[in-house]
Amino acid sequence: xxxxxxxxxxxxxxxxxxxxxxxxxxxxxxxxxxxxxxxxxxxxxxxxxxxxxxxxxxxxxxxxxxxxxxxxxxxxxxxxxxxxxxxxxxxxxxxxxxxxxxxxxxxxxxxxxxxxxxxxxxxxxxxxxxxxxxxxxxxxxxxxxxxxxxxxxxxxxxxxxxxxxxxxxxxxxxxxxxxxxxxxxxxxxxxxxxxxxx
Length: 198
Prior knowledge:
Elements: H1 6-14, H2 22-35, H3 37-53, E1 55-56, E2 63-64, H4 70-73, E3 81-85, H5 88-97, E4 103-106, H6 124-131, E5 137-141, H7 146-159, E6 165-168, H8 184-192
């Protein structure tokens, strides 16, 4: 029999959020209970509504409350360029730059067999199908972790028969960075990704 009080259960529920440990969860719960019960009720209502109505876009897998998201429906976006990202937060980051005018494909993670994340969980069959429908270039905007590298390799191999150009975001020295402060992996990526100055 579970002897945890409702307060303890709520504290534990808050811990599902990234970066929220036991103390932070406890502060949040006590704040809502002591000072802002109306805010807590509004949070619970909005959370329930959002979780029930938001799903994945049928074309790019981004989060949306519609069958097809706003970016996929946008008539002026370049339909022959597809940027593959790990998460919806990456789409937001790229959109804030204003520098990309194509379409997106959101993996919702990277390949991680130990965690049970394979090609099916990332929607790679849908990605391949989209590429066979007039995509000229796929830009891989995936982090350079071990899992990210494996995911990029898998996607590039998967897309070879489609004759789609597969490129990757440049990685290496950040703007304003000094060489002496960079780690070896970053320097290797910078060397491998060098380009000729015109």
